[in-house]
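hey so i finally got around to running both of the ones u sent me last week. sorry it took forever, my laptop kept dying halfway thru and i had to restart like 3 times lol. anyway pasting them below in the order u listed, first the sequence line then the structure token line for each. didnt double check formatting much so if smth looks off just lmk and ill redo it

first one:
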Amino acid sequence: KMRAVFLLLLVSTANVGAVMEKGLPRRRLSCVRCCGPSEQPISIISSRYTRMSSDPAYSIPKVQPTIDITILKGEKGEMGEKGYPGAVGKEGERGLRGLNGQKGQKGQRGPQGHCCKQLYAAFSVGRRKPLHSSDYFQHVTFDTEFVNLYKHFNMFSGKFFCYVAGIYYFSLNVHTWNFKETYLHLMKNEKEVAILYAQPSDRSIMQSQSLMLDLQEGEEVWVRMFKRERENAIYSEESDVYIIFNGYLIKPAIE
């Protein structure tokens, strides 16, 4: 009988355990690594700290301190010495084309062109008509052309135009008028460079003046009368030439 009672209790205990096991959730048991002979056992606190630090929810925020530079900034120092110039940089790109300028005035008509520019210049012109000064300054023109190489002397304006820069020789010859003053200027552009003068006399004479000038291309040489208190005049005749103006190039600036 006792044996039967023990078996009955054993069956009842097993049934109760099965019922409790069905009613309660199962709990998983995690495996714990055993320590080796040369290892120290890990404490529960350090293991928990390791799990919490790896979890983003328990990560410690990073603190980045900021420094106010204005607090640390000192006073402005003195300007230092000028340094050595740096190396030349690369050439920049070409800029845009600028606006067109205003159209210039029409220039004076030049002489007849040549296949090669000639380094020569010479002229010799005369005047057959007498001339009395009527103004304070009066331009002297010429009506006779002896030599006018490449037409450098303009017969209409009475001026020699320099097309070839260099050293030039000029001479002016006139015939004075009886009892009248003779006063002329040799002009370079708008400035007098030499004077031809003869006092009034009862005899008319030939009077001359000459000089050398260093001319640049585009400059002009010409003759004008200068009237003062007395009457100023130069004499000539239709049948002969008494007034002659000469000029020629001695040495060009570029040979």
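and the second one:
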Amino acid sequence: YMAMVAAINRAIDEGKKMYDPRFYSKLTIDDIVHIFRSDTVSTMPLFEERIHVLKEVGDKLIEKYDGTFVSVLRKADGSAMKLIDLVTNEFPCFQDITFYEGQRVALFKRVQILAADLWMLYRGEGLGAFTDIDSLTMFADYRVPQAMAYFGVLKYSDNLMQKLRNETLFQSGDREEVEIRGCSIHAAELIVNETCKILDSWNQPSGGLNSVKVDYFLWDFRLMNATELDVVPYHRVRCIYY
């Protein structure tokens, strides 16, 4: 993620309007390969899928929202949940939906990050003044479950642990992949509830603790303690919704 941000900032410094849908919706695969060129032997995956996403989002913003995401935010009218509904309905690439035992399951990782990051960026004011931010879940990815497993919040079966250690590449929607992500969402809710109970018993305020803050803490903890947490394997999957 940080490498992607660095590449985008580099492109902006080079005069490319990465913030303008009229620009990024017309990028070619060659453009993307150049913009996200690496300083190492590693390369960014899913170039063609990213081209599709940029065009889909850019075209919709131009067609319906005056070429700016600010218009989408204003339509959300201070509601993170309304923003999520708008984005997932208008931009199919944000529809992080799968099926589990015949039931439709919406995990909505990226769109919830979108709402939460805007809330943090604007410090809960202006365009980020979401009155229902506590309604968001954690952002079900692969690094936060790794941190949860490190702390013993999640425990994997021997069979699943072996698959993780073998670096099995799961397909998006695989039963085990959905279970890891779903259980991490439930675990974050339990962490919030139990922490608030403990703070209340100490006559201490919760400080507005919610699943968003739990997610940010665990994600940052993993980032700052990467070597230590590498003793716990994480699940691997290629999915544009991640």
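quick thing i noticed on the 2nd:
The chain has a mean pLDDT of 94.
anyway thats it, ttyl
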